[in-house]
Specification:
alpha+beta; FAD/NAD(P)-binding domain; Flavocytochrome C3, Chain A, domain 1; 2 domains; 8-stranded mixed beta sheet; 14 helices; 29% helix; globular; binds flavin-adenine dinucleotide
């Protein structure tokens, strides 16, 4: 039987932040248990784009994360707007219809920049500008999406690799291929350890405290179907196959309180050509988020969302689910040649269907009612606008269609100039919103509303932050924020 100060379950961004923080705060024997084998380690963090949303008042403050940036990018700061804490919190409130946990969301937002600086200084994570995702060129200046300027160098792959390197440098033990199965609780109500399963069978790890950072239930078809519904149950998985809800079930078995939107998830438009699980080497390249510059048609030939409701980084996390509700869970994104240069580089992982007329384009799509699809495009074009009317891809341009039953409220440019392009899309699940109730100390709260002694939680497992929707780049900063707190408090737990 092994005895540890802190046992960390999982090896993604949140768990490794917790392990590093526990060590930084004096814990000597810290172990990370990772269910995946070494070659599949790192959870969704590996698959992620590594983009980090955080609040700052003056764009020049970002410079400390990106040394030498002005030599690389001329006028770098000119295209960055300040993103004060109130705006970050306002975005969280807006996209969750005011339902984000009032305490935890403020803790996340108010610590966001500090957390990212800590990831760099203590976590050893190098950063780079998130250019392919959040910058658009206008008049020779790169204009950046608000709050989304920085990502981990080499995206999720680099982020995950750096966390492991730091953990190893700090002497943190990492056990691969070791699945946590059960939390052990003493008669005094304290968590005393974890029962695990590895190639040698079942054994017990004892510890003074346990941090759960082992993800949601996005890869578990039964739990998805049960909690979110059959449509999402059938969704393709964008990240790790290992997040099966184990930590949530284990915690609830010892009395932890489920919290947040268990019927909700982050699901995005992805290429319909991908398999049930995204290949590890292609990470997040499945995304198809440039729908704001075109329209989406379902297999009945109808539009079904306001593609221009908001910037894609504020709608992508709910539109995947909207697509899953359409016939066959498949839609087509249609663009003309005036906007095709605006499509994000991830579109290059599939070949579009192209044609010189809209009739020829629609003829090639597996749309059941092609005549209706052409009518939809014609009707859209009759109410849409022209570039000279004020089309501006760098901001919400207010260029709305006029007179459609379902308006497109920004970037409503006519689909008029051949050649025309179509990309398929389905909904891919990224992560689940339901989690556990935790307090500001990242302690897990029981159904008796008291903290469960010795049990902490971080990352996707924290319930209550996201409802229906999510602002891009928040998951990793949330994971590191709560991971850091969990690790610090787990180290101190006597
Ligand atoms: C394709 C994609 C792109 C994304 N892009 C971004 C982005 O750019 N920015 C952003 O902020 N967020 C992004 N996200 C979301 C982000 O990746 C997650 O919010 C974040 O990585 C979750 O971190 P985590 O540590 O909670 O979980 P994970 O990183 O998923 O780690 C969970 C860990 O627990 C392990 N585990 C599971 N069960 C057990 C068990 N029983 N015993 C032991 N170990 C177990 C898993 O193997 C894994 O190591 C993206 C997600 C995906 C899938």
């Amino acid at each position: 039987m092994s005895r540890y100060d802190v046992i960390v379950v999982g090896a993604g961004n949140a768990a490794l932040a917790a392990a590093v923080s526990a060590t930084e705060n004096g814990a000597e024997r810290v172990v990370v248990i990772e269910k995946a084998p070494r070659e599949m380690r790192g959870g969704n963090t590996h698959w992620s784009g590594g983009v980090l949303r955080f609040a700052f008042d003056d764009p020049r403050e970002i410079g400390e994360l990106l040394p030498g940036i002005e030599d690389e990018f001329e006028n770098f700061y000119d295209g960055i707007s300040p993103y004060p804490k109130e705006d970050f919190h306002g975005d969280l409130m807006r996209v969750t219809s005011g339902r984000t946990d009032p305490v935890l969301s403020k803790l996340l937002v108010f610590n966001s920049f500090e957390t990212v600086k800590w990831m760099k200084q203590v976590g050893g994570i190098k950063m780079e500008p998130a250019i392919t995702l959040s910058a658009v060129k206008k008049d020779n200046v790169m204009v950046w999406a608000r709050g989304l300027v920085v990502r981990a160098e080499h995206e999720g792959v680099g982020l995950s690799r750096s966390w492991f390197a730091t953990a190893e440098r700090l002497g943190i033990e990492i056990r691969y291929g070791t699945a946590a199965m059960e939390l052990l609780m003493g008669d005094d109500g304290r968590i005393r350890g974890v029962k695990v399963r590895d190639d040698d069978g079942i054994s017990v790890l004892n510890g003074r405290s346990v941090v759960l950072g082992c993800g949601g239930f996005e890869a578990n078809v039964q739990m998805r179907t049960q909690h979110i519904g059959p449509l999402v149950g059938a969704a393709k998985v964008r990240g790790t196959p290992h997040n099966q809800g184990d930590g949530l079930r284990m915690a609830m078995n010892v009395g932890a309180m489920p919290w947040g939107q268990w019927s909700g998830c982050h699901a995005t438009p992805i290429s319909a050509e991908w398999g049930d699980f995204a290949p590890r080497e292609l990470t997040d390249r499945s995304n198809r988020l440039s729908y704001v510059y075109g329209i989406m048609l379902n297999r009945k030939g109808r539009r079904f969302v306001d593609e221009g409701e908001d910037g894609a980084l504020f709608t992508y996390a709910k539109f995947g689910r909207a697509i899953l509700a359409e016939p066959g869970a498949k839609v087509w994104q249609i663009f003309d040649s005036r906007v095709v240069h605006l499509l994000e580089p991830r579109y290059q992982t599939s070949k579009p269907i192209t044609a010189n007329t809209l009739e020829d384009l629609v003829e090639q799509l597996d749309i059941d009612d092609r005549a209706h699809a052409l009518d939809t495009i014609d009707e859209y074009n009759a109410h849409a606008r022209e570039i000279d009317d004020g089309f501006d891809p760098t901001r919400k341009d207010g260029l709305s269609s006029r007179g459609l039953a379902l308006e497109k409220t920004n970037w409503a440019l006519r689909i008029a100039k051949p050649p025309f392009y179509a990309y398929s899309a389905t909904g891919g699940i990224t992560f689940t919103f339901g989690g556990l109730k935790v307090n500001e100390e990242a302690q897990v709260i029981g159904t008796d509303w008291r903290p469960i002694k010795g049990l902490f939680c971080c990352g996707e497992m924290v319930g209550g932050l996201f409802y229906d929707n999510y602002p891009a780049g928040t998951g990793l900063v949330s994971g590191a924020t709560f991971g850091r707190i969990a690790g610090r408090n787990a180290a101190a737990a006597g």
